[in-house]
């Protein structure tokens, strides 16, 4: 993407005012985004984005600059602009650049940009038809298709030189069901760090059917009661609560500045023994998986909480300086326009020993949440508020009527401590996570779990 001589010149220019570390991030990205409504392709956007980011450290000072000018003069200018914010006395020498290689954990069979658009449209149309024909009450279906190929080069003054190709594919299906004056929505959005084969090898009919089924089921739902109840949270995207309310609190972005309730608590019991919480970027072809992070560190499996004990944090290169701890391969960014910081990949609660049937049978009364919706969280405190897309009453150990209007309100670290059953059916859900370094693909996951008590906000009427 850039020749080695130019890379060395850029890294040297970035250190010209006394920085002690410099880094270059080069990106060339191809994207396709299609939307299908009313059985027709409504929008078709394809694009290419390329640019370069340059970062300089001096102790605990970090400066970032980026440019879309790929001429030698333009790149050197960006490096010097970053350097001008640094005021040091000692000029360090670059370590010799050594190109690193690795075996990909995210193999790709078919690059999306080499697949004809008609094949992509056919996949979308089939998902549309499956959802639309599920039930007569389905009034509208929207199918969104996305694929991208991101080529990156990362080099730094410590001698690192590494390149990577990231290919991701995703489809989002939303179905709307209407009866009389009532309207309900269902959604499913699977994705993978994989090529076009993801759409042909996955059960897209199931995903489309689920989106429609949720919408139709909620038409018959009763208002959810309010109060404090045991809550059963199903697998896959149910993990979004702990991603938001606990995962962000374990990122060095918050921990290094003591802006997290988990700061300075390594070795403490922060959850029951049945809870192990993991961030693993090495899972083959998963949506949040990475070969290397955006600082060139190889992906790894980071056990954050093991049998209830806080074992570690997610740490990027800059915050490793603040904390005096090594990077965990967690430096990620949306694009060259963002400096990287500590972020999650595939974060999940490890499977336990209970079956889903045992969890439900052992619950005298409570709420079962099958699919979570969106929510809000305060990363500093862990306080959260999440909507539930599909919920049911649990009564005498059995699933009862569907419930609508449910929200879960609580505090992530406290909720973590109240997990009293963990299932054996681990599943992952694809999503996008926004933070300081932009929006990035992540998986959230867990098996079915039961929390002994959560405040449930419901709908008036019961």
UniProtKB/TrEMBL annotation:
SUPFAM superfamilies: Putative modulator of DNA gyrase, PmbA/TldD (SSF111283). Coiled coil: none annotated. Belongs to the peptidase U62 family. Residues 23-85 form the Metalloprotease TldD/E N-terminal domain. Residues 226-458 form the Metalloprotease TldD/E C-terminal domain. Its EC number is 3.4.-.-. Keywords: Hydrolase, Metalloprotease, Protease. It is an enzyme of class 3 (hydrolase). The keyword Transcription does not apply. This is Metalloprotease TldD. GO terms for molecular function: metallopeptidase activity. Residues 112-219 form the Metalloprotease TldD/E central domain.
């Amino acid at each position: 993407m850039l020749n080695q001589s130019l890379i060395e010149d850029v890294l040297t220019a970035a250190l010209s005012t006394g920085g002690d570390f410099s880094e270059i991030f080069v990106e060339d990205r191809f994207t396709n985004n299609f939307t299908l409504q009313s059985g027709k392709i409504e929008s078709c956007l394809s694009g290419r984005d390329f640019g370069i980011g340059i970062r300089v450290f001096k102790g605990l000072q970090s400066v970032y600059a980026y440019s879309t000018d790929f001429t030698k003069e333009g790149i050197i200018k960006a490096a010097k602009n970053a350097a001008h914010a640094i005021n040091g006395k000692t000029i360090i020498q670059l370590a010799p650049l050594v190109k690193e290689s690795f075996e990909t954990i995210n193999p790709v069979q078919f690059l999306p940009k080499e697949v004809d658009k008609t094949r992509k449209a056919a996949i979308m149309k089939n998902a549309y038809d499956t959802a639309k024909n599920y039930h007569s009450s389905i009034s509208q279906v929207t199918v969104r298709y996305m694929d991208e190929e991101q080529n990156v080069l990362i080099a730094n003054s410590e001698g690192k030189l590494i390149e990577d190709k990231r290919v991701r594919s995703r489809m989002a299906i939303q179905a709307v069901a209407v009866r009389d004056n009532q309207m309900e929505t269902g959604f499913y959005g699977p994705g993978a760090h994989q090529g076009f084969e993801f759409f042909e090898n996955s059960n897209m009919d199931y995903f489309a059917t689920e989106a429609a089924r949720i919408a139709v089921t909620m038409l018959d739902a009763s208002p959810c009661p309010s109060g404090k109840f045991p809550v059963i949270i199903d697998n896959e995207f149910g993990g979004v609560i702990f991603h938001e309310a606990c995962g962000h609190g374990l990122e060095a972005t918050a921990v290094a500045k003591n802006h997290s309730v988990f700061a300075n608590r390594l070795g403490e019991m922060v959850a029951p023994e049945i809870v192990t919480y993991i961030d693993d970027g090495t899972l083959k072809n998963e949506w949040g998986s990475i070969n290397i992070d955006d600082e060139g560190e190889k992906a790894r499996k980071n056990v954050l909480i093991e049998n209830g004990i806080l074992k570690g944090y997610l740490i990027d290169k800059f915050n490793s300086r603040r904390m005096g701890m090594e990077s965990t391969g967690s430096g990620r960014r949306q694009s060259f326009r963002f400096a990287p910081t500590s972020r999650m990949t595939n974060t999940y609660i490890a499977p336990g020993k209970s079956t889903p049937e045992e969890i439900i049978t052992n619950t005298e009364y409570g709420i079962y949440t099958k699919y979570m919706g969106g929510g809000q969280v305060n990363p500093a405190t862990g306080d959260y508020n999440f909507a539930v897309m599909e919920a049911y009453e649990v009564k005498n150990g059995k699933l009862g009527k569907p419930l609508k209007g449910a929200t879960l309100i609580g505090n992530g670290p406290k909720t973590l401590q109240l997990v009293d059953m963990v299932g054996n059916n681990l599943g992952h859900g694809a999503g996008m996570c926004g933070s300081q370094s932009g929006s990035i693909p992540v998986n959230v996951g867990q098996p079915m779990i039961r929390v002994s008590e959560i405040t449930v906000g419901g709908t008036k009427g019961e």
